[in-house]
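D-alanyl-D-alanine dipeptidase
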Amino acid sequence: MSRILICLFLITFISCKENTDRPTAAEPTVAEVKEDIAPTPVATQPDLQSLPDTSFVRLADYSRDFVYDMKYATTDNFLEKQVYECDECYTRVNTAKALIAVNKAFMEKGYRIKFYDCYRPHSVQKKMWEIYPNPIYVADPAKGSIHNKGGAVDITLVDMEDNELNMGTPFDFFGKKAHHAFGDLPEDVLNNRKVLKETMEAYGFNAITSEWWHYNYGPTLNYEVADFVWHCE
Ligand SMILES: C[C@@H](N)C(=O)N[C@H](C)C(=O)O
Ligand SMILES: [Zn+2]
């Protein structure tokens, strides 16, 4: 009996020792797994939930899941001028929350939002109006654009490799082909615009008839026009 007990003790001891000596590369420890999947905080900013809906926030401080191509921070835009010193995307807090939520829905379908423009200072709206005073494509600064209120975004969709989906025209194509009612387009283009519009609408954003890329967040329509300019490093 005592021999059997000694054998059992030795077998248990050896097998435990083997477990602790085994390389862990193939099977990460619980701590390693947790570290791998834990979301990395984007920055030390106040929690979005703690801020008033009307505050302005820099979207990149609250999500890493968006793609940016801020056209007015380049000369590749209808003004042919760089009107932003640097490429930042600011919105009101409620708009930022809705954008993060709708982007999650897009990601479940294999897409992400790519921004062309977000909050736009009122002084920039005036410059746009001087060059293109057509209220179908540029909001009259006398009334103010929802961009000036921090509630509008100009966007498209990219796939998970960051390739833009075909929307039929480039951004800021000021013509009938960019209108939602223009139906003479390939099936994939119509479908891409439909996915964009239906998903945005489900999260409180409204399209305008003349621009497939422009969306207004409903609760911001009556907000004040703003003219602050963000800080650039
Ligand atoms: C200029 C264009 N990107 C745009 O945003 N147009 C709308 C109508 C606006 O100015 O609010
Ligand atoms: Zn717009």
